[in-house]
Hints:
Elements: E1 6-10, E2 17-21, E3 44-48
Antiparallel strand pairs: 1-2, 1-3
Amino acid sequence: MRYLKSFVCKCPNCGKEAEIFSDEFDKKHFCKGCRQQIDFTKCTLESGV
């Protein structure tokens, strides 16, 4: 797990930033702001670590 990358993007529904790790792309994620499911293929990439 040394090669994990973190991605931060804005929720396409409300614009709140959300973070996902590279090993979690196949899991469902929900926005903490609007509680809608986030499709990370449609969000705007803000930064990567």
